[in-house]
Amino acid sequence: MYFVIKCFQKGLFSLNKSIGIGIFIFINVINTYKIGAEEKYVISNSWEMGLGLKLKGNLRTAGNTFELSNEPNQNSENQASSSSAFSPNLISGKFSIDFVDWVSLKLRMDYYWDKQVIYNLFPKYYEENTVHVRDLYLLFPNLAKTSSFWLGRRTYEFDNIYLFQIENPFNQIELQGLGFENEVFQASVSLNKETVFTTAKDQSGNQILDSSGKAKLFSEDDYVFTAFFSGKFLLSEGKIFQPILSLRYYQEFADKNVSSDGSKKDTVANSSSFIVGGIFLRPLTDGIKGHTSVWFQSLPADKAAQPNNNTGSSSYIGQGRIPPNYPQNTIGILDSSEFYFTPYGGILTAFILTNNTYASELPVLRVADDKKSLESDGRRMSRSTNRLSVDIQPVYFFTRNWQMGLDISFVYASQKLIATDANSFVVTPILKYSFDEKLSTNKYFFVSCSYGFYDWKIKTLQDETQTDILFTTQSGINITF
């Protein structure tokens, strides 16, 4: 309770501004939210149309400064952190045309306007302020509509981790190919054109450097073949187990010439990646529901490419299709659960535990004496670290629409290997108006404030002051139809 009271006392002025704008948004949402519902509109006996919308919009303050940007914020760069304290702004629209008993056209487009988003397995950064076509495919059902075949570009998404800002690790993004699915399994093959970066040498065999004296990077076309499979097995009491396997193979195709003087790009070796595991879904039983995932993931990494531990920057080099600050292998387990205490409310919980192994030995970092950065302890090297994120949010229902939650998030790394690793404890009181009246609501307006405590001064305020205690407020909407 102390943290809740302190939170509101310290940020009252900033919070009032945030609430004011939030109320304006709220009034407009109340008047218009039914328009975007994901419904099928029957145009004739032969065809129908579907529309859907996902919107996450935040107005934030940090310290005593009101900002529309997302910096500084309570996000943890290298692992899961609370979505109540921070989540990227996005708008996603879905559109479909269904010609009855023949074919459906599916379209989905996403737009992020203040933060790069990274997904696993490529992994690939999706730039902000750019429209991303997630789905554009034709779906051909059989006459009984028990199975279907698809052709085009498609994204597969699995159950989200409600309390965290990250996506499900099994998600398959923008597969370009074809696939088959029925009530028991789905399978697909795809070929995507991506970009990989490599170094180069001049005609004398010397490494080409950039203006800072580091190896200069040159882009190459990279073709990625993916084979994806997931199943669905019904267990006792309505429980479901989904085994999942995704295999990828990377092949470079590019002109090796850099310029007319004979400079040559270095060859990028072919490589592969995979993720294997499963999701255990638990339906609502005795007031409890949720899902648990277990996975092992291996990504293509270059041992010569090491993170720069003095900055947060990274780059792709050589055969590595991933940034050097991204782990090569990950073993993980996550759980997202809901506990109902009808009619008073409930408790939302989530945790993610991962063992991350990097491609090469890295210096073990410690907090510097001034607490403004991390530095090598000068003694230890390591390839692996364990990362734990835990979040719990008790929720009280004033009514089924008006909900008050207290989100408590803890982030921990067993040893710091990356310059942006930090342990943290963040408390976030959050007030929601839920349109769907659910505990894990996906249609709501919210106002919240967050008090974050970090084990070093990783956060930088607008005046360039570094701090290990950060107060922020958030208000906005989260709508999924």
TrEMBL record:
<dbReference type="GO" id="GO:0016020">
    <property type="term" value="C:membrane"/>
</dbReference>
<dbReference type="GO" id="GO:0015288">
    <property type="term" value="F:porin activity"/>
</dbReference>
<dbReference type="GO" id="GO:0034219">
    <property type="term" value="P:carbohydrate transmembrane transport"/>
</dbReference>
<dbReference type="InterPro" id="IPR036998">
    <property type="entry name" value="Porin_LamB_sf"/>
</dbReference>
<protein>
    <submittedName>
        <fullName>Uncharacterized protein</fullName>
    </submittedName>
</protein>
